[in-house]
């Protein structure tokens, strides 16, 4: 993919529009004011908890990046660095019984579904104590008890499944909702449009969330999307939508509450959360498409630091408390890494377990079918035979 230059993020671009405003006018997002924080009705304890959770995700992801370079983690590995406020705000608004589908950028989401750092880290390490027993890795975490239904590596793969889960809830008459996250690039996949269409037609209880970090790998939203204000795509399906500042956990939390309330009443919703990822697409991407100026600019918007500053100004945090919270996160992550390293790799006999949800037996076996030919003698054995 060719390298592309991007305009550094400006504070004024952090726009928020309400659904009606946004859809009434094509330039609503441009004219909308930057959302002020101060989530009404949220206690100081909850605001501090938002911060604690953001710091946990930050430290967890940094540790995952390090472990990857030490070859303790294999395969693909995509981080939520820069998206902490969005992940926390989105998940804090969910009930424990609501369902969550994500793409492959999911470590923070798994942590926020109260899956322990030990189990999340063990999954990254491919160990038996991992969320998916070590068979899923970074992109495929699944925990039915916490209603995290994946973790999908195929871009857009989660969207029809999430829509189906919404149909199942509706069919059974429950009042849970499904929250389905995806990246900005995913909104150009056919499954996105098919899913939104059917969800709107059938009034399914689904909140579709676009985590717009403004890049699909190295391609900007403006280069790939004819309508770069992605929340507007919902209007094609007469679906309510909103675009909010994803660097502010309180704004995201409140917007998600509104979106979930809509979905619970049978009106699906498209929520666009504008964020940035602070590093490359995955841990192996050096992100050369970013200029040094842009990288420097990004640091100014780092959500963990800006939120700490805000809570300090509000008198909810001081330097000592910040240090303590950071120390606790570092401890939790250190323990998780030690736990993961001590956990065994899964036995190859379990390779086909949990593959089918049907009556097809989930038996342990080494390989499907017998070998076509008897195995050839190994060179050393053949040499032994020759000598004899
Ligand atoms: C169907 C499909 N096509 C292409 C890919 C390769 N791919 C992996 S991630 C990605 C970019 C997706 O960008 P976006 O939806 O913005 O998500 P982000 O990584 O920014 O969170 C691509 C093209 C894939 N995994 N699946």
Search tags:
single chain, 388 residues, two-stranded antiparallel ribbon, 7 strands, 41% helix, disordered N terminus
Residues in helix, %: 40-55%
| Rg calculated over all Cα atoms | 23 Å
- Head-to-tail CA distance between termini: 59 Å
Series of H and E elements: HHHHEHHHEHEEEHEHEHHHH
The best one-word shape is globular
Unreliable sequence segments: 1-37
> Which sheet architecture does the biggest sheet show?
5 strands, parallel
Q: What's the CATH architecture name?
A: 3-Layer(aba) Sandwich
CATH superfamily descriptor: Thiamin diphosphate (ThDP)-binding fold, Pyr/PP domains
User: Helical region count?
Assistant: 14
- Please indicate the count of domains: 1
* Mean pLDDT over all positions: 87
User: Strand-residue fraction?
Assistant: 5-15%
The number of distinct β-strands equals: 7
Briefly, what CATH class?
Alpha Beta
Structure class:
alpha/beta
Bound molecules: thiamine diphosphate
Major β-sheet strand ordering: 1-2-3-7-6
Structure explained in plain terms:
By secondary structure, the chain is an alpha/beta fold. The chain has helices at residues 19-24, 28-31, 44-69, 84-92, 107-112, 117-124, 158-172, 190-202, 221-224, 249-264, 292-300, 303-313, 319-342, 379-387; strands spanning 99-101, 178-183, 206-212, 215-216, 219-220, 240-245, 269-274. The strands form two sheets. It has a five-stranded parallel beta sheet, sandwiched between helices. The chain starts with 18 loop residues before the first helix and ends with a helix. Helix 3 crosses helix 13 (319-342) and helix 7 runs parallel beside helix 8. Strand 4 (215-216) and strand 5 (219-220) form a beta hairpin. The longest helix has 26 residues, at 44-69. It has a single domain (11-345), classed as Rossmann fold. The structure holds thiamine diphosphate (TPP). Residues 105, 153-155, 182-186, 213, 215-217, 281 line the site of thiamine diphosphate. Thiamine diphosphate binds at residues 105, 153-155, 182-186, 213, 215-217, 281.
């Amino acid at each position: 993919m060719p390298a592309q230059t991007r305009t550094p993020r400006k504070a004024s671009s952090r726009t928020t529009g309400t659904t009606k405003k946004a859809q009434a006018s094509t330039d609503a997002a441009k004219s909308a004011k930057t959302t002020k924080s101060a989530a009404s009705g949220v206690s100081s304890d909850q605001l501090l908890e938002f911060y604690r959770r953001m710091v946990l995700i930050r430290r967890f992801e940094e540790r995952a990046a390090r472990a990857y370079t030490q070859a303790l983690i294999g395969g693909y590995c995509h981080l939520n660095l820069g998206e902490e406020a969005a992940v926390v705000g989105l998940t804090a608004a969910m009930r424990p019984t609501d369902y969550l589908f994500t793409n492959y950028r999911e470590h923070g989401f798994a942590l926020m579904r109260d899956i322990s750092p030990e189990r999340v880290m063990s999954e990254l390490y491919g160990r038996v104590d991992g969320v998916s027993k070590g068979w899923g890795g970074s992109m495929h975490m699944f925990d039915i008890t916490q209603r995290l239904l994946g973790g999908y590596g195929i871009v857009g793969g989660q969207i029809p499944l999430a829509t189906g889960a919404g149909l199942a809830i509706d069919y059974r008459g429950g009042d849970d909702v499904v929250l389905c996250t995806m990246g900005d690039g995913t909104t150009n996949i056919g499954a996105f449009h098919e899913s939104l269409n059917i969800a709107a037609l059938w009034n399914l209880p689904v909140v579709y969330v676009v985590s717009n970090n403004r890049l699909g790998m190295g391609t900007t939203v403006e280069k790939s999307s004819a309508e770069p204000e992605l929340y507007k795509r919902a209007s094609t399906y007469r679906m309510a939508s909103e675009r909010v500042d994803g660097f502010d956990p309180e704004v995201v939390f409140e917007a998600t509450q509104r979106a979930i309330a809509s979905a619970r009443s049978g009106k699906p919703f498209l929520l666009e959360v504008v964020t940035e990822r602070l590093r490359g697409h995955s841990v192996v991407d050096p992100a050369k498409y970013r200029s040094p100026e842009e990288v420097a600019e990004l640091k100014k918007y780092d959500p963990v630091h800006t939120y700490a500053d805000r809570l300090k100004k509000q008198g909810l945090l001081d330097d000592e408390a910040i240090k303590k919270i950071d120390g606790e996160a570092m401890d939790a992550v250190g323990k998780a890494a030690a736990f993961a390293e001590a956990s065994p790799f899964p036995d190859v006999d379990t390779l086909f377990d949990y593959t089918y949800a049907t009556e097809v037996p989930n038996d342990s076996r080494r390989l499907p079918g017998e070998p076509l030919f008897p195995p050839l003698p190994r060179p050393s054995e053949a040499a032994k035979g020759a000598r004899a």
